Amino acid sequence: MSCNSGQSSGEKKVGGCHGVPSKCHCGKDVVFYTSNTQANPGRPFFRCPNRGDDHLFKWVEEGVYEEVVDALPKFSIIGREIEDLKERIEELKEDGMLIKRDTKKWKLMSSLCLVCLTFSVIAIVILLLKTKNPKFVLGY
Ligand SMILES: [Zn+2]
Asked: Pfam families given for it (predicted)?
């Protein structure tokens, strides 16, 4: 994220940057440092390598906090999308169960039809063999 210059009140913070910065308004990549001052020992911050008063300075926790605040609405949207997908999965499971049940039904019906057809063919063959006209059996 590139930042514009501007002095904030209170802390020595420069830049109208929102979120975690990557560049200063001057175009330089920001550098990550850790404070060793008595007021802020061990506190991490971003700073432009040019280090001027009009160049970027930002505490890391401020940038991270802004990123989290920006991301919260996205989490809400993602949460709703996950709920929608869960509902869709349940619907597909129900559809799958119906298809499975219908498939079993059709397999049973086709087996019954095959048995009926087999008996019919056997009956026809027996009847034809009992007739006195063998030409008809051979298809002439
Ligand atoms: Zn700069």
From this structure: Zn_ribbon_GRF
